[in-house]
Write a structure and sequence with these properties.
The protein is of the alpha/beta class. It contains 19 helices and 24 strands. Bound molecules: 2-deoxy-2-amino glucitol-6-phosphate.
Length: 613
């Protein structure tokens, strides 16, 4: 949601910023713009995709070695050029880009209008430019003016400011949790961005700004302070993401690439955590003694969307292996129902981006009530990472496609390892059982690779038959019920086909009324403790002339005979099966969306990090 990039150095700044914005396209946006300072402040903005902005830049280039840019996801006012960022004051002296919402913007706007300021846009952001202008007009320097202006704002923001009056600097601030902002450190050049991929081509050394941190970025260096003016020391972090992992390479879409990254990301997740000779699992980052592990009374998983479904699979793993009570909560609902939490509760947040505002709010609720906070996140230095007592960093690498794929299977692998680890610490998992489980784990990357082979499943036939359908039903039971939900979500998100995921046993309580020859029913029927139950669901769908696409183990001829079409996966331990069963569902959605001509990597209305409530 909204992206910010800034550059100051010796290169053509608008090119660096435009390329950085392209790397943030996955966050979702509907207009874009860049401001540069080359003696004077100059701005180009365009509605729609960055290609529109690129055309404007070709027609009328922006010169100079300092620029800030923005991709806007409309909140206040429609996604038209006048509302695109950067916003400038009347004198065209100051340019501002912002992520977040100025909650008191109506009051500020009225006050500024009363004082004679004229507004050119419908946005909340424009009040910031006028506030800075107001402070500058009293003789303040840029940093002092920005500090005063930022102090007037309510809400959570990341803001970057530049001015032709002081053309050697960019001022940036983070206020609250509305998406992160990082400073990238280079040689004779420095950067700022909402997310790491934007600057990964230039530097892997970054500084994460926290709530109330301000940075003044020049080509020669960066100085940090708190919003109130007090100095603050910031440590830089080396990001171990390979810049190549943020490009599509041989693939047409990031989503396709990321689906194919999964054997590698599962392998990287397992590597270093598992002792295959003893079956023991290591999780030093949780700082847990066996006594503390035994004292945990309950794990409450909080997450949204795909991460929520990962949590639902995790419940099966944690309850079975660690014998601990687990609940899985929509983070967006959590704080509104006065949950029962105490110091024996662990709140486990799952978030690919680490910046989802609902998930952060759920963690804060947990903190207030004395719970321990753990998280599984993909983005190092993100807010969820920062506020957790212990974090498991996913080894998925950057995930650019808006529809989450490899972060899902990486999370499931982490949850499996965490369940084994807690089971071992709590004494609920024996050495023999551990040894048996890690044998299955060792084969998992290879089995994921099998499912991805070109000739393993026939997606072409399925796409041919089903890409024009308007509705799909996905059914699963046990640990595959959340996979049915996730499969339906993937189809909805990228192909815009209505799809519902359901626990199969609930079908007879309502959805069965929908079954006819027009709505494909995707049944996940793998060999586990609910296999016979799922088989009977397949029979019930068939008895009503329903169309069954069955996701089965590769050697299952019985279900194959009863189904219209099948998707296959290799056999593994039932608790690991969801990690494989989701892969054909990701691929099916991907191929259907491509056939329907949808924008797979940037589906309409969606954003990669959801930083507003
Ligand atoms: C996944 O395909 C979705 N785009 C979405 O549901 C996502 O999983 C959700 O917004 C949570 O994001 P997070 O993992 O970054 O917190």
């Amino acid at each position: 949601m909204c992206g910010i990039v800034g550059y100051i150095g010796t290169k053509d700044a608008s090119t660096v910023v435009l390329n950085g914005l392209k790397k943030l396209e996955y966050r979702g946006y509907d207009s874009a713009g860049i401001a540069s300072v080359n003696g004077v402040l100059d701005i180009r903005r365009a509605q729609g995709k960055l290609s529109n902005l690129e055309v404007k830049l070709l027609e009328k280039p922006l010169l100079g070695n300092l620029a800030i840019g923005h991709t806007r996801w409309a909140t206040h006012g429609p996604p038209v050029e006048r509302n695109a960022h950067p916003h400038a004051d009347e004198a065209n002296n100051v340019a501002v880009v912002q992520n977040g919402i100025v909650e008191n913007f109506m009051a500020l706007r009225r006050q500024l209008q009363d004082e004679g300021h004229e507004f050119k846009s419908d946005t909340d952001t424009e009040v910031i430019t006028h506030l800075i202008d107001k402070a500058l007009s009293t003789g303040s320097d840029l940093v002092t003016a920005c500090r005063w202006a930022f102090q007037q704002l309510e809400g959570a923001h990341a803001i970057a400011v530049t001015s032709q009056q002081e053309p050697d600097k960019i001022v940036v601030v983070r206020l609250g949790n509305a998406g992160g902002v990082i400073v990238g450190l280079g040689n004779g050049e420095n950067f700022l961005a909402s997310d790491i991929p934007a600057i990964l081509d230039h530097t892997q050394t970054v500084v994460f700004l926290e709530d109330q941190d301000m940075a003044v970025i020049t080509a020669k260096g960066v100085t940090y302070s708190r919003l109130d003016g007090s100095p603050v020391e910031k440590q830089s972090t080396h990001i171990n993401w390979d810049p190549v992992s943020a490009v599509k390479g041989q693939y047409t879409h990031f989503m396709e690439k990321e689906i194919h990254d999964q054997p590698q990301s599962i392998q990287s997740t397992i590597r270093g955590r598992v002792d295959f000779t003893t079956g023991r699992i290591a999780f030093e980052e949780l700082h847990l003694t066996p006594e503390q592990a035994k004292e945990i009374d309950r794990v409450m998983i909080v997450a949204c969307g795909t991460s929520f479904y990962a949590g639902q699979v995790g419940r099966f793993m944690l309850e079975k292996l660690a014998r601990v009570k687990v609940s899985v909560e929509y983070a967006s609902e959590f704080r509104y129902r006065d949950p029962l939490i105490d110091d024996k509760t662990v709140i486990l947040a799952i978030s690919q981006s680490g910046e989802t505002v609902d998930t952060l709010a759920a963690l804060e609720e947990g903190r207030e009530q004395g719970a321990q906070l753990w998280s599984i996140v993909n983005v190092q230095g993100s807010m969820v990472h920062k506020i957790s007592d212990g974090t498991i960093l996913m080894q998925a690498g950057p995930e650019i496609g808006v529809a989450s794929t490899k972060a899902f299977t990486t999370t499931l692998t982490d949850l499996f390892l965490l369940s084994m680890y807690l089971g071992q610490q709590r004494g609920t998992l024996s050495d023999e059982e551990s040894f048996e489980l890690v044998k299955h784990l060792a084969h998992l990357p290879e089995l994921a690779g099998e499912v991805l082979k070109d000739d393993y499943n026939d997606y072409e036939t399925l796409v041919h038959h089903y890409h024009k359908k308007d509705h799909f039903l996905y059914l699963g039971r046990g640990a595959n019920y959340p996979i049915a939900m996730e499969g339906a979500l993937k189809l909805k998100e990228i192909s815009y086909i209505h799809a519902e995921g359901y626990p199969a046993g609930e079908m007879k309580h309502g959805p069965i009324a929908l079954i006819d020859e027009d709505m494909p029913v995707l049944c996940i029927v793998t060999k586990d403790n609910v296999y016979d139950k799922m088989l009977s669901q397949v029979e019930q769908v068939r008895a009503r002339d329903g169309v069954v696409i069955a996701l089965i183990n590769e050697d299952d001829t019985l279900v194959a005979e009863k189904s219209t079409h099948v998707l296959r996966i290799p056999t593994t331990h039932p608790l690991l099966t969801p990690i494989l069963s989701v892969i054909p569902l990701q691929l099916l959605s991907y191929h259907i969306a491509v056939r329907r001509g949808a924008d797979v990597d940037q589906p309409r209305n969606l954003a990669k990090s959801v930083t507003v409530e």
